[in-house]
Each structure stands twice: as structure tokens, then as C-alpha cells.
Amino acid sequence: CALAELKGFDSLATDVVASPNRFKEWYNKPRPEVLPLPSNWRKLIQQNFFMHMLVVRAIRPDRLTASMNIYAERTLPDGKNYTQCDAGVSFTEILKRSLDDSATTTPIFFILSPGADPVVNLQDIGSKNGYFPKKWHRVALGEGQDVVAMRKLAIGVKEGHWVILENIHLMPSWTGELEKALNDYTSEGAYHPDFRLFLSAEPSNKIPIGLLERSIKLTNEPPQGLTQNLKRAFATFEKEEFEYKDGKVKMILFALCHFHAVIIERCKFGPKGWNRSYPFNTGDLENSGQVLSNYLERGSGGDKIPWSDLRYIFGEILYGGHITDDWDRRLNMTYMRFYFRAELLDGMELFPFSESYPDEKFPSPEPLPYDEYFTYIDEYLKVESPVAYGMHPNAEIAVRTLEGENLFKVVQELQPRGSDDSDESGGQEAKEEENPVRALLNAILERVKPIQFDTEDIATRIGSEERGPYQNVFLQECDRMNVLRNEIKDSLEELELGMKGELQMSDRMEELAQSLELNRVPSGWVAKAYPSLRKLAEWLDNLMERAEQLQKWTDEPTAIPVVTDLSLCFNPQSFLTSIMQVTAQTQQKELDKLTIMTDVTRKQPEELEVAVRDGAYVTGLWLEAARWDSKQSCLEECLPRVLFDRMPVIVCRAILRDKLEKNGVYTCPCYKTTDRGPTYVFDATLRTKAPADKWILSGVVMLLEVPMA
């Protein structure tokens, strides 16, 4: 352990060996950074939190960034001001403060984020201060609008109006003229004291540095953390209006803010949170709040709340209007069913399905005065946990680990670098670096050259009478393997000639050599292959396994393998379609009315010797965010720090879609990689004793490829 070599940690390794169970217990805690270490190290958390943080970095790197937040809050004066920033302040209030800091020579520059329109907030302020609409000029930049913008700017400077120039990134060449005009006005002292200039643009490297340096930069992106997002969401509503609302409206409005914070912060989990990225924004929240007030004001004294109507408007229209993925829409509506129901008014728990985590609680508050809601959030929502989103604590491990790795990568890049080596030694190193690439090139060629499938010969051996859907699928798989193999072989042989000096090195060859050196799959191979996130070495091993499965089939091409490994197929959907085609032919059913039903066995591939009569045995599937209990044949929560669970052999059968059982079943999407989204394969039906909504919120899926598998 490298940490044991630092001063003060001499006995750490010895103590871990002496008390492994106590350290393991600490290691398995969801948030070890807030708990004292075992043995003599327990005092560190109070006396020297930095040393405590170093132990967290060494043993639980996924909790490093959370530990650093605590360190900043404890060490810096008013530390929470640095970790929470302006989370409890609305964007309108921030804009008002920025206006107070601005001057005639200091524009306010809005850096645009998806779904945000800061001009709406600015218009409200301008209206209250008497600038909108008479002293208000708004120009959206585009072709021919530069002349209009300069004319409005001149009027504003002279008469003390507010000038808003939007999307200036669309005319990068004109921004230089704008900067020059502002400099001229400044040198002439021509500004009216009431004049203010507002600019907006998407992030761009073509905007002049001088224009940025003279401006106050603002952006309306959501803060990081559930607590901060909830405060920001709640601060969106004006105090004066909120205080006059009915108690039921206050409770529903707080739940709406919590829902808004949850779906925004869930994005930090990447594909585990949402398959795609969506521009949820405060406009959605404000509109939902307005709909809520209108609905309940029209009701009979607010006695009967139209929950189904609210769920539909919030979930399908206002927020759901952003959502394009069907599985994400299912997730969104599951949140709607959980948060917006009658139990909310009885102070229900806002952390979905958190019964297994008694320490993770956040009940819905009773109606409170406006300011007391912020106190309530600070008191009851003290820690960040995936349980708040209905997810397993394991969901945070990969995200937090990546955060820590990226942080230290940036820190290392900022470190001062030593002087470069001499040209002579550099030349020698270049020669040495060439050899590993050439050796790897030859090793790969040696492995892929034997891969070759004569599909015409195979088709002849099958015969037209015995050639069915399964045989067509495997022939297609052989064709795709040949194409990939030829691409690998040809590109490597071309690179070899280039390295010998017999061909001029092209950009394609340079990219290939660099990919080999960095253990990365070359882009030319990726284009001919299949979705995969593996490094080159693991990718090649997997390629050999795919070729081996095809070779076993070609030895007896009239029959399918007893167990087919879906993860070794280029196109697993085609194999599943062939199951439905065979069923349609043998049982005289319409193909477009069939779907795949899955039945999980208790067998491993090596335990099966005969193919199943109806359907096909498949393997190569992994569960993420849950595990399979073979004894009870149902889904269960995953074990601590076990991210993936290998599934036993599964029987895939084709049945009529309207006969598919839905009670006690979770419809589980299956993807090719952890990127999910575009790698979708099919829906699996998995038995569950818990409500299916629990697994939807957990983000439970099956995968054909997982890290290190």
C-alpha cells in the first residue's frame, strides 16, 4: 500500500491485517467518509480529516469527492458557501444581484444551457423597473441582424435603454465589431447612466476574449447535488405568492420541486439514470406549478385533487415533452405514480422503496412558512445517496470513482512538468517504442489469419430443404465475421508495410498505430464490428470467442448450438427474431403478433446437453442494479459493491403478445453495453416479488457486455 509509506500511516497496513473484519465492515458502508475508521484510526475523523480523507482515497476511491466536500465545509470559513454556492437562491434573484454589480461599461453575458431562457427572467425585472417595453430592445442575431443590433445599441447608449443581443455566437466575425464599438463608446464617455447591455451565446471559442473579460458571466445550469437542486427548485417560486397558497397546494408543490430535483440530479448516473440527456429546466417547474394552482383553484374547494390529471400533464406533457426514449418515459411516469398520490398529504416517505435502508429517510413536510422549508431541507436531507432516487447504493460507485479519477487526472495535468529529454535520447526512445507496436501487430495478425468461414461451402452442406431461420442467422454472422477479419488483416498488413518504409504512412495508418499503442480498438475496426466498450486486448479475446462459437456451429450447421451465447453474436436481435420465425412456421401464427418470453432456468451452460424443444437456450446475459435469486427464481436487490450478476441459462420462447404474463413480472430491457440507449436488444420478462416499479426506478437492465467480463 503506497499510503503506508507516508508519514503517519506506518502502521495502517499492519492494523488492516490484524483487524480485517472491522476494516471490511467500514469498507462496505454506503458512506464510510462520515464514519470513524476502526482501531486507533477512529480519531482521525475529528482530529485530522485530511488524513482520514487519504485513507478514503486509498480504500474507497468512489467516496473521494464526497469526502472532499466535507473537508471544504470543515476547513474553509463558511465552508457551505463554497460547496452549496447559490443553491437556495432563484436565478431571478441572482440576476438582480448581478444588475446591482453591473455598470454601463460592464455587459451581462448569459452563457446558454439547454432549455434555459434567461431573457424571460430579465423581462420580469425590466417590467418592474420600468424598462419593458418602452425602453427595451431585443435582437436575435442572424443574417442581416448585425445592422439592426448596432442601431439599437446606439439608441440604448444615448437614451439609457436596455439592449439584449441574443445568440451572438451565430455571427462570430461581427463580435469583433461589437467589441470595437463598446471600446469607442467607453473612450468617448458616451454612455447614459441607465444604459445596460445584455449578451447571450452558447459556449464558443470564437467570441473575443476582451468581450468576455469585460462582462459579468452568468449561466442558468442546475447546481450539483440533490440538496442544492431542491433548494434552487423551491426558490423558483416567489415567497409572497407561496405564503397565500392552501396547505395542500404547498405540500404538492414541495413534492413537485423534489421530483424536479430528482430527475435533474439523476443525470449524474449517466446511462444508469437516463438513456438519453434531456433539457429539463425551471420553465417546466414553473409551468407545472401554475397548472397545479389553476387546477386546484377551479376545484370544489380543493377537496378532491385530480391526481391522474396532474400526473398526465406533468409527466406526459410538461416534462414528458422532452423525453424521446420509451424506457425513459416509463421511468418518468413511474416517478409520477410514486410522488403524486393521496398518501403525499399524509406525510409519506419521499425516498422511493427505501424500506431496506432505515437510515435513508426524507418524509414529506407538513405545510410550513416559506423560509422554514429551507431549514427543513438542511435538517432532513443531510446526505447524498442513490436511495433518494429509488436506486441501489451501488449505483454511485462507478459514477463517484470516475469523478475522482477525472479530478486527479486534471490535477496531474496541472502539475509543472520537467524539461524535455535531449534529442539524442528522444531518438533512441522512438526506436524502442516502435518495437512494441510491431510486435503487437504481428501477434494480432497471427491470431486473426486463421479466422475464415467459407459461407458458400457451408450453405451447400446445409442444403435448401434444411436451411431455416437459424441457419440464415449463423450464415449472416459468418459473413460479418469475414468482413471484420479482412478489415483487421488488410489494415495491419498495410501498416506493416508503412513501418518498413515500403508505403508512405497515411493518416489512417497513423491512427491505427496510435490505437495499438494506447490499447484502443481502431476506428476502422469499430465501423465493421459490433458495439463494445472493451480495450483492445479484451476486445481481441472476445473476438476469438465469437469465432469459436461460429466454428462450433459450422461443424454441424443443420442444428443450432445447445446453448447460444447472445453476447457473442454480431446481431443478437436476428437470432431472437429467428425464434419467432420458427414458431410462426411450426404453429401457424402471425409473426407480427409474436414476442419473446424469457424463462430463467437454474442451469449453467455446461450442465445442458440437449437443446430445448420450443425456443432456444441462451446465455451471456448479466443483470445490472439487481441480482437473480436462483433458489426463489426472482429478482432481488444486489449485494453491496457487486455491480453485475451473471444470469443462468435462459429459455427464450415466442408467444402471442396478448398472452404475455404481466402480473409478478418485470419487463427488463436488454442492451449490448453499459452505454444502454442505442444498443437496445429486446425485452426480457423476469419474475419479481417486489413491485415492478422498484426495479424501474433502480434502473435494472440486462447487458451482453460488462466491464472485465
What does this protein look like?
The protein is 48% helix and 11% strand. Helix 7 crosses helix 8, helix 12 (226-235) packs across helix 14 (247-265) and helix 15 packs antiparallel against helix 16 (307-318). It is built from 27 helices and 16 strands. Mean pLDDT is 90; it is low at 418-426 and 428-434. It has a five-stranded parallel β-sheet, with helices on both faces. A five-stranded mixed β-sheet has the order 12-9-16-14-15. It starts with 11 loop residues before the first helix and ends in a 6-residue tail after the last strand. With 709 residues, the chain is α/β, with parallel strands linked by helices. The chain is globular and about 90 Å long.
Condensed summary:
The protein has 709 residues and is an alpha/beta fold.
- Strand fraction band? 5-15%
* Strand line-up in the sheet with most strands: 2-3-4-1-5
Strand segment count: 16
Radius of gyration: 31 Å
Distance between the termini: 27 Å
Structural class: alpha/beta
Topology:
Blueprint: H1 12-18, H2 20-27, H3 44-47, H4 49-59, H5 64-75, H6 80-83, H7 91-101, E1 108-111, H8 118-128, E2 136-140, H9 145-159, E3 162-166, H10 172-188, E4 196-201, H11 209-213, E5 216-219, H12 226-235, H13 239-243, H14 247-265, H15 282-298, H16 307-318, H17 326-339, H18 370-380, H19 395-414, H20 423-448, H21 455-462, H22 469-500, H23 507-517, H24 523-528, H25 536-555, E6 563-565, H26 572-587, E7 594-600, E8 616-619, E9 622-624, E10 627-629, E11 634-636, E12 644-646, E13 650-656, E14 665-671, E15 680-687, H27 692-698, E16 701-703
Parallel strand pairs: 1-4, 1-5, 2-3, 3-4, 6-8, 14-16
Antiparallel strand pairs: 7-13, 8-13, 9-12, 9-16, 10-11, 14-15
Helix pairs in contact: 4-5, 7-8, 12-14, 12-18, 14-15, 14-17, 15-16, 16-17, 20-22, 21-22, 22-23, 22-26
